[in-house]
Amino acid sequence: MYTVPDQSGKFAVVTGANSGTGKETTRRLAEAGAHVVLAVRTPAKGEQARADILARHPEAKLEVRRLDLADLASVHDFANSLIASGTPLDLLVNNAGVMAPSKRMTTADGFELQLGSNYLGPFALTLRLLPLLLAADHPRVVTMSSGTANFGRIDFDDLQWERRRYSPMMSYGQSKLADLMFTQQLAAVAAEHHWDLLSVAAHPGSTRTNLQTAGASLGQDKTARPWFARFDIFPTQEVEQGAEPELYAATSPDVTAGGYFGPTGRMGLVGPAGKVRPTRRALDKAANARLWTESERLTGVTLAECAS
Q: Which of 12, 85, 123, 224 is 20 to 30 A distant from 75 in Cα terms?
């Protein structure tokens, strides 16, 4: 198991921290000494997660704040509340996500649910939190992707699945490819501005969490199980192992800008965390820059506004 280095004095935000890899990442960061904000859509679930962690680690420094990544107003309010506190942010873990709702749904802002929750929300959150990140020593942004990014495609003419027939898994793959592209472009932006900020990505492989069966549905029906969850041929692992790529990306001294981390065992789905190769589509600099520009247009959140 990966041993998280001492995080004493670090201030971190983990989205989707009430369950799965987010909860495990929060627990182990707090156990290592970090002060962690559980950024969750449902505060009651966040408080339960906080209580669970405190039962194991009574000295853990944890707080719960509401954040709905499917609502840009919520993202704005969450970021403003943190900025008002004035505490430099050492680590942002963009962990929360939804997966493969059986029908096309939309966010509060009218975005296709998976693109909005998995990518546009985290994009807006990261930019809005840049003032706190850039005030910290050696800050990091870790964005969770997925192996499905390997077959994802960015259709700039139909990002919202309004013209095409909606595909739950292809939509999910597009959102997770967008996360990888954002990771690379943020690393490029940081280098261009000479920021001491690491932008890295991770994926959990085939980890047994509730993401595949109970992702956020904005109060509608539960999401459908994706095709791979219906078969027993794929290896799976417990959440303690599945959180390790995220934890490694967040805390290892060996991480470099643009790095991507995931399981290195069977089929790249299970096993010890290590550096993995992103799909070539995430390394297209022109496409990455174009996606960033389009994301600024869609969200109304811009680098010029947030990093001035």
A: 224
